[in-house]
Amino acid sequence: MEEVKKNTYLKNFYKIFPLFNGLTGDLLFYVAIDTLFYTIVKGFSPDMLSLLTTVSALFCIILKIPITKIIEKIGNTNSVRVGTFGLILASVIITFSGNFILIMIARIIYLVSIVFKNMDNVMLKNNLILQNKEDDYAKIISRSNTIYATITMIIAFVAGSLFNINNYLPMYLCIMFCVITFIMSFYLKDVSANDKQNKEEKASKQKIKISKIIFMVLFFYGIFQALIDIGQGNSKLLIQYELTNIYDVTLTATYLSVIITISRIARIVGNITFGKLYTKCKDKISMILCTMIILSFTLLTIGYFFNYNVLIKFVLMAIGFCIILAIRDSFKLYIYDLALKISTEKERQAVTIYLEFARRIGSTIVSLMATAILAKVTLIYVIICLLMLAVIELVLSIKIYKMIKKEGMCI
Q1: CA separation (Å) from 25 to 87, 227, 241, 357?
Q2: How far apart (Å, rounded) are the C-alpha atoms in residues 178 and 23?
Q3: pLDDT of 52-96, one tens digit each?
Q4: Exposed end of the chain (fewer CB within 10 Å): N or C?
Q5: What is the largest CA-CA distance in the chain?
């Protein structure tokens, strides 16, 4: 009878999880108006925004060890609940506080909460393994990504208008969604024996040794995700600058809005088609994604220097920008699936935490590199350097593929 209850619960878990995971992909509404909210409502300068981002990211990296210990102690289920509550706390402080230090603390809470919340990936993987349905991981996460991409596309359409009606309205909605997902987290549970460490594991206090293949995956993910994060922001800025060189402010805003809208649609299409592609290509998917990011930066570079036809110029740059959005969620899905697949039961919590910190470290390093380049030359050279890093990533993906095949760790 107990087994029947567990199976019934897991059926409901798989129904709720995609919506929960999609709604907690980020702070909804906040991500659409964050710079507007900070500059117009809070009165922060660009330098303050840069400091806010850098310091909060560094604090998140510094807090890695205590965060890891807490997650190991409280387990995946409670970590997800702590994470969703932390998102409520962060959004409330950001909304109602005008103090820079308090908002800095809120940003740190926000980044740390994402680490805790990401244990939902481990929760899903453990529950699927329990029922020998591990191959369904990609399908469920892909559904979650599609929900997130669709919701954020809708939000992108309405956030500006809501902000104009009332500057605080998007943040009120952000808090509301955070409360909803916090309530939803109590309907999700890791029912496996690996939810948290048992007494014997705690008593042994054995440190988990990261294997060479896992280290390679972490390094690969940190750099690739940085290419996505830094590439997306800088490529959009590059297109904006090129538009302003030809058109007035009104037309620039209109054309840029159209490109961003198309990129959001590309993100949805990417999530929908990735599942089918992943099923066919499996381990080779990383090489395909690396080739696509190379293509993206190549098109952006060619488009920048192509001045013979304005339409072709911006079509090339727009396609390059859209490719970044199209593969963004798919790459994260692949890496999490791979990392959880090649790690042992005891390693999964730690590996998931390391993935988030690898992303933070990689983005910080590449961001500093971009800042140093911009101090000397123009933005296009940042894109060219990202292109060079993307080629290196392709080489790494081939090496990881060979390691996986050699050790028999096929997905």
Answers
A1: 11, 19, 30, 16
A2: 8
A3: 777 887 888 888 888 888 988 898 899 999 999 999 999 999 999
A4: N
A5: 73
